[in-house]
Design brief:
Number of helices of chain B: 16
Largest interface: A-B, 51 and 42 residues
Distance between the termini of chain A: 16 Å
Helix content of chain B: 40-55%
Strand order of the largest sheet of chain B: 2-1-3-4-5
Strand content of chain B: 5-15%
Number of helices of chain A: 18
Number of domains of chain B: 1
Structural class of chain B: alpha/beta
Structural class of chain A: mainly alpha
CATH topology of chain B: Rossmann fold
Number of strands of chain A: 0
CATH class of chain B: Alpha Beta
Radius of gyration of chain A: 23 Å
Radius of gyration of chain B: 22 Å
Distance between the termini of chain B: 73 Å
Oligomer: heterodimer
């Protein structure tokens, strides 16, 4: 089910009505939320709920055993079991076709005639998100960082909680499971603020991403022609805005919906396009994934504890795997590799060419960072290397005879939207929406809210799927 | 934070804004109607699964959509046909789906619009893809998508402002369509499709009469003619007569072998389009060999005095009134030929 759909609005109203009715006590409310979450997921493809159940059952069992078991070998066994099941799901459903294709290509390159049967594997929605979330529980249990979930119901709800089930934020057990132990009820202000966040999230998705930017981005990246530099840049900028509004929109909706239930989810984005460098970017973009990768991949790989070379290797590996997490294609690996390279260069700059960031050079640095990020988006969005490379050539004017495929209005529209987006991020980079709203008159807030809602209604949209559902 | 105040203000402004928006567009002649999208098509396709031998399926391109009126068909035969025609599309993928993915052995009427029927069998070509997308959507639609469509239909039927269409009509009033009106083709230097406005209404059963304006307002009809000219003149692909005929005949034989009743119909066209069809997709070269190869009962509008002078307001489709006449009279002819049964008398 998509947040930007009528069925979800009806679903949410029913869930909220049941949640705040006096029909159920807290345990039954949690059961209702769990059932609602399975319905939310199952309305897309019912049989794939079974994967959620398996993941839940395996990690619940592993967590329980890890809480009691002292024998190190047996503890490792339970950890490995959880990793094998979750990564096995990911490997089969997400990377199965990719691995098979590459194996076939490898065989053929050695002159061995091999043609694999296509597997036609369906990618379960949000599998990368919920497998990472459940794995974090088991790893934390293995490391004895957290207490086990008190009941199976609490754990199952943690894995399946519908607002963040399919596209995050990837929440840690200590931050979410404990919230289920006592009855939660949003205050009036929390509820209205949640509704406001839900509206902002929908506005970002329906109006900004789908209505204003997606067509331009799709036109440019869907073209098989060598493009004029302006068209290539505008298409890339449009995608840059689209993916931010799409994903941040989803996260904002998720946070808002959870807040309406009295549950607090962590921020996932903090105005990333005003980042001053790439370490800053990754503390602002998809925060829950970058912190997951840092805690469960970068640090176990050695982090910065074993010298500079080892740190660089750990960093690069983390970014490459982070790239691959987004999709089973070499272009995602290049995307991750570029970010890894940026981070390495930034560390070298900080070591050998340090300079102080002031408010005067800050915006310039933010602009440079944003421009470099845009180059990486080309590899993220393009389905083929050839498309990506043509785009890069066009963007740097190596194609003088590129074709113009965008209308003047599209160029103005995208330039204005992205210009405003960048400036808004710059203005907001050291504050938050909550802090800003506290300073804003309720009348002004009401007018802004009304404009956003009005635009959502007249934009309507065609229920476009969120980009990150495929990851 | 005084969020209650903000919420109340939001509610008041939105209510006023949306009522004003709805009233404005209604004053401009917009009415609330359904979109002929893949969900609506899938609803009809789903009905095929439960059809008996008496069932009737209509398929083809937009001419079948416009020219066959379901109420008249039902009045004449007692059976309401299922409308599976798809505008701008080849009927081949849909017929192929019915023949190969269902056990249906009732009556299938296939409309032959030469430019689309004989266009292609290439899966990526527009006329094929448009139809195949609907077939695929029917196979793959999720329960959430079904619920969304059920929930959206009352809104589409009652609010003019709910206007997103799959076709992307020039007179749609959703935000994206309104913004697209600002785009001109001056930068790309390519000719732009003239404004293509919706010119029919569709109901839940996909009964699709032409809008009265198309038949009475010459300027409006001319705007549609300009679109046909743009599309037809811009199409540089030659017809694939052999491939399309062979593909269809294979399915037709399979269908008739299992007891299915196949009817081919060439609906009326007129003016510039008819001249073009006669010249480049002539009856002798295209229709006649198809009829011979399928051995199905076939009706060519020009063979009947009552149909041959029917005028299409925009060269390609009948007005609502003429469509009712055409349906009633053609069904009578088909009944007289014993091609259609009458459940009212049987």
């Amino acid at each position: 089910m998509l947040f930007n759909s009528l069925s979800f609005v009806v679903f949410l109203v029913i869930v909220l009505a049941l949640y705040y009715s006096k029909l159920f006590k807290w345990t039954n409310k949690k059961r209702m939320l769990l059932l609602a979450s399975y319905v939310f997921y199952g309305l897309w493809n019912p049989p794939l709920v079974i994967l959620l159940w398996i993941s839940t059952a395996v990690d619940w069992t592993a967590g329980k055993k890890l809480a009691l078991e002292e024998n190190e070998k047996k503890r490792k066994f339970w950890l490995l079991l959880s990793m094998c099941v979750n990564l096995g799901f990911l490997g089969f459903f997400k990377y199965g076709n990719f691995l098979l294709d590459n194996f076939t290509s490898l065989m053929n390159s050695f002159g061995i005639e091999y043609q694999a049967q296509p597997m036609d594997i369906i990618l379960p929605m949000g599998i990368s998100f919920y497998t990472f979330q459940t794995m974090s529980y088991t790893i934390d249990m293995y490391k004895k960082r957290i207490e086990p979930a008190k009941t199976f119901l609490d754990f199952a709800l943690y894995v399946t909680f519908f607002p963040q089930l399919v596209a995050g934020p990837i929440v840690r057990a200590k931050d979410l499971i404990t919230q289920f132990y006592e009855e939660k009820k949003a205050t009036t202000n929390q509820f209205i603020w949640g509704l406001f966040l839900f509206t902002i999230g929908l506005f970002q998705k329906v109006v900004m991403a789908d209505t204003l930017l997606s067509d331009t981005s799709d036109t440019v990246f869907g073209s098989d022609k060598l493009l004029h530099g302006v068209d290539a840049w505008i298409g890339t900028l449009a995608f840059s805005g689209q993916i931010f509004f799409d994903f941040a929109g989803y996260s904002t909706c998720a946070i808002g919906i959870a807040l309406m239930l009295g549950i607090i989810l962590p921020d996932n984005f903090r105005y990333p396009y005003a980042s001053l460098g790439f370490s800053d970017l990754w503390s602002r973009w998809h925060i829950s994934l970058s912190s997951w990768l840092k805690d469960y991949l970068y640090i176990p790989l050695g982090g910065n504890r074993h010298g500079i070379t080892r740190m660089y290797v750990a960093l690069m590996l983390t970014m490459l795997l982070g790239g691959l997490w987004h999709g089973a294609a070499w272009t995602f690996l290049v995307w991750g590799g570029l970010h890894g390279t940026y981070l390495l260069l930034e560390k070298l700059q900080k070591q050998y060419l340090p300079f102080k960031i002031t408010k005067w050079n800050g915006i310039f640095l933010a602009f440079i960072t944003f421009s470099c990020v845009n180059i990486t988006w080309v590899f993220f969005r393009a389905r083929e290397f050839e498309t990506a490379w043509n785009m890069i050539k066009s963007m740097f004017y190596m194609q003088t005879d590129g074709e113009k495929i965008l209308g003047s209005f599209d160029i103005i529209k995208v330039s204005v939207v992205i210009g405003i987006l960048f400036l808004c991020h710059w203005i907001m980079r050291n504050t938050s929406m909550k802090a800003l709203s506290l300073k804003t008159s309720p009348w002004v807030l009401g007018v802004i809210w009304a404009i956003m809602f009005f635009l959502i209604v007249i934009a309507q949209g065609s229920g476009e799927q969120f980009i990150y559902f495929q990851f | 934070m005084k969020l209650k105040k903000s919420l109340i203000l939001t509610f008041i402004i939105c209510s006023i804004g949306l009522i004003t928006w709805e009233s404005y567009w209604r004053s401009q002649g917009k009415i609330a109607d359904l979109d002929d999208n893949k969900d609506l098509w899938a609803l009809q396709r789903a009905k095929v699964e439960n059809l008996s031998k008496n069932g009737v399926l209509l398929m083809g391109s937009s001419r079948v959509l416009f020219d066959f009126q379901l109420n008249e068909w039902q009045t004449e035969t007692g059976i309401r046909p299922i409308q599976l025609a798809s505008a701008g599309a080849s009927p081949l993928p849909i017929f192929h789906d019915i023949v190969n993915n269902t056990g249906f052995k009732g009556t299938v009427l296939v409309g032959v619009t030469p430019g689309l029927f004989f266009s292609t069998t290439y899966p990526e070509a527009g006329p094929w893809k448009r139809a195949q997308r609907r077939v695929d959507y029917f196979e793959n639609r999720t329960y959430a998508q079904r619920i969304n469509h059920y929930l959206s239909m009352p809104l589409q039927n009652n609010l003019a402002l709910v206007s997103t269409s799959e076709e992307g009509w020039a007179d749609d009033i959703d935000l994206k369509s309104l913004l697209n009106n600002f785009n001109s083709g001056t930068r790309t230097g390519k000719p732009q499709l003239p404004p293509f406005n919706a010119f029919s209404y569709i109901d839940q059963d996909r009964n699709n009469p032409m809008r009265e304006k198309t038949a009475t307002d010459t300027i409006f009809a001319n705007s549609i003619k300009a679109v046909w000219k743009f599309i037809i003149m811009g199409n540089k692909n030659p017809p694939e007569k052999e491939a399309t005929t062979n593909f269809f005949v294979a399915d037709a034989k399979k269908f008739m072998k299992r007891g299915g009743n196949l009817i081919l119909v060439r609906c009326p066209s007129s003016g510039w389009i008819k001249q073009g069809e006669d010249k480049f997709l002539s009856r002798i070269d295209f229709w006649d060999p198809l009829v011979k190869a399928t051995n199905a009962k076939a009706y060519y509008f020009e063979d009947y005095d009552k149909f041959k002078n029917l005028e299409c307001p925009e060269w390609s489709h009948l007005s609502a009134e003429d469509a009712r006449f055409f349906t009633t009279e053609l069904v009578k002819i088909m009944k007289a030929d014993g091609v259609l049964s009458n459940s009212k008398t049987n």
